Batch of 2 targets.
Target 1
Amino acid sequence: MSVVIETPRSRKRPGFNLEKYGWMYMRLSGVLLVILIFGHLFANLMVGEGIHAINFAFVAGKWASPFWQVWDVTMLVLALIHGTNGMRTLVNDYAEVEWIRRTLVWLLWIVCATLIVIGILALTTFTPCGDASSISLLGKDGANVAALCPVK
Amino acid sequence: MATATTEAPVEIGVIPSFDVTIRVRRFNPEVSEESTWQDFHVTMFGTDRVLDALHKIKWEHDGSLTFRRSCAHGVCGSDAMRINGRNRLACKTLIKDLNINEPITVEPIKGLEVEKDLVVDMNPFYQAYRDIKPFLIANDKPEKERLQSAEQRARFDDTTKCILCAACTTSCPVFWTDGQYFGPAAIVNAHRFIFDSRDEGAEVRLDILNDKEGVWRCRTTFNCTEACPRGIQVTRAVAEVKQAILRGRA
Ligand code: HEM
Ligand code: SF4
Ligand code: FES
């Protein structure tokens, strides 16, 4: 009689998987987001008149500057992918039925991609100076915006 | 024989005793699909551990109470259970250290299927352990001793202390919701070989743990470190394995 010791079974060959890169991304984007988010909060809420300065014209003024455009696009893309990947982790934790899990993860990335596209469009094509009638819609802010806009 | 002694017999300190309620989560699949709480009132001593209370219940109150234990001294790792909501070894938990004014709850460890009362199916846990190849992998013939410096030995000393009690893995919220996750205990035991200078299988093990269900599932909750009855820095070991995977070597 010989004792057969089974060869330890290893899980199915770990093929290429993105988990490592996901893990690294969460940390790298986290570090950048600390700078971007707190820089954003500081510029909006603390500098000058602080929070009282925020209105349509303030945002329009910021988005007229390539510096803030790049800042905001970076923040938008990094945070959305970060948040979506974080939510993917939660879905992987709690979804027990495989097709539901897959569907939810797909939905997450579709929403993420859509928001990134809309966000980038808004940030790069934004023009505060529509025609006079749209400026008048802004009420009190309209005067500030009109001051920003070149005279037609 | 009897050597008469003139001295009075030494007064032995009286060990204080107290009454305590042990609230055990009972489950018997032959009777019901549901588990229920059952209270036992026992008189215990200040030197008694939760395991002693379970013994007393089994031996004097209800012989059907089912649990695992072997060494009764914190060595074998058979009696990890959830005591007052925390994973501990019943044989290392003094009752007097718990709040004896309230019932002491005793439940099976979470995340593994309960077979009866406090006994769970440990197979998935052992399978994850087997999967990380918990043995020396060395290619040279074992003709002479494999020498190792004190520093090299110290590198993985902490993780050699594991007794495979599963307290860590079954305290991990990721494991609770995803039973496929290797879990801290398997990673601790992989760490024990990955950082052993005599071992040559680090790459294989790092590859195994660089898996969808491997180290990246860890979210640094620290439950495992808190649960470990051996005081192993479990979360740290997991982090070191993550770092090793990023580096591509031990
Ligand atoms: C202030 C800068 C931020 C830092 C430093 C940061 C850092 C991190 C890190 C390191 C993780 C991974 C945790 C783990 O794997 O254990 C994480 C997870 C996550 N982050 Fe962020 N993050 C930041 C901002 C954000 C923002 C703005 C959002 C939302 C858009 C967000 C949403 C999430 C979500 C949903 C998770 C997953 C939570 C979980 O795994 O339990 N984070 N964050
Ligand atoms: S690391 Fe600690 S808690 Fe986990 S199985 Fe080993 S001894 Fe038990
Ligand atoms: S019975 Fe062996 S560790 Fe508790």
Target 2
Amino acid sequence: MIALKNELIKLFSKKKYIVFIVIAAAVVLIRFLGTAIFSGMISWAANNGFSLGKGMASVYDMISFNIRVFTPFVVFLAVSDLFSAEIQEDTIKSVLSQPVTRGQVLAVKTVAALIMGCVCYFSMYIICLIMQIISGGGFNNAATVLLAYVLDIIPLITLITMSICLNLLIKGPALSLLVSVIAYLALTYLSYYNGTVSPFVFTSYLEWHKLLIGSTVPVNVILSRLGILAGSVLILYSISYIMFENTDF
Amino acid sequence: MATETVRMDAVKKLYKNKRGIRNITLDVNKGDVLGLLGPNGSGKTTIMKLLCGLIKKDAGEVKMFGLDAEESFERVMRKVGSLIEAPAIYKKLSAIDNLMLTARMRGADEKRAMQYLERVGLLQYANERAERFSLGMKQRLGLSMALVGEPELVILDEPVNGLDIEGVVGVREIIEELNKKGTTFIISSHIASELEKVCNRVAVLYDGEIAAENEMSDIERRYPSLEEYFLENIRKRRGALL
Ligand SMILES: Nc1ncnc2c1ncn2[C@@H]1O[C@H](COP(=O)(O)OP(=O)(O)OP(=O)(O)O)[C@@H](O)[C@H]1O
Ligand SMILES: [Mg+2]
């Protein structure tokens, strides 16, 4: 637990993460204002007077963007800070010469990256929910969308382990980040355009809440997808573990 | 009850380029201040990294505090503080935050961390970000990280590197004081005259092997200085290899 606290202190001491979350919040806000002004002008033209349109912002906004673009990027960045950057700057040696095993260090760093991902998920959720409340939507769907984000934590773990694996293979934080992004894009491409492989690629299920919420998917389908996600984590984490355990620092 | 703090037996570690250390057999007893003296690339850092678990040995046996250093890694490392090569410092964190990372892992609170910052002369910079520190200030911070857990064994790789005269004297005083209380030290340095002042035993390394090892008192009796002892053994080795 103390080791986890240390990793989080190191991670959040970097201002860029706060900046990214602020930028994402700004995007939501600009989008909302844009819609508000646009529909405001229409209603003005229709002589109905200016009104802040009800339901112009919804807690559903940005959920795909957040899960497919924003959070993966921030998480890749966090992993490269937690692994490649520490290895390159040689600060990893002070982490490893503490009374913790390498296995524990790997686990703690993985959890730290996951916490960063959750911070992204839920800060976006809260921002969008506030927008919805401002535009008069109240707490409509708030619980459903929250559940969606919670469910999508599972595919987020696969993304993190993939990135860790790449970080241990590739030297240098910038290159590791780049390769993580490229690998992610390639897998996403496969999951969209290659029907034969897509069921086996975990990026197909990044937004697997869509399957689970509001539709009646048979249990065996859910289980097989969960199997793909969990299997990917298992394989990627094992490879990472073996590499991390056997590297000289 | 073994009194040996460290026991290395026929330890071998070669990097991918086939350089490293071979056939290292070395005992360090409780209360020793062992100096590692050797030319650049002779294997001093490699030995120290091995003792801190940063690299894994290829062959041989390493026991620390009577335990297998790899199997009982956690228990062993609780008793070991280290400063290896350049200190590991997070630029974005302040001096005290950097030190707290290590202190926390070793059950030391902020009060104790502050005491150690004072000890290395960094108290007035406690809240300043480490990216603004000079070489010697970073070295001092690294030193406080090695000491803050009050470990039984302290491993210092070129501890006076970059330190000013006061800093060098300060390090010597810290070593002497802690050693009186029973702390064991393994120290490497290029400055023979510095090791001479604090060590009770010296091992001379040459090309990944121990070329000579002796008590400081014996060296003092037979040689004008540690430097002479070092040079003689290095030349002997070099001659033997030719
Ligand atoms: N990561 C590494 N990969 C390959 N070879 C290495 C690595 N680290 C050290 N070596 C080699 O191992 C040998 C011993 O290096 P080591 O760093 O232990 O020397 P040293 O005695 O600490 O030298 P110095 O006085 O310069 O600090 C050298 O020949 C060095 O080139
Ligand atoms: Mg060295």
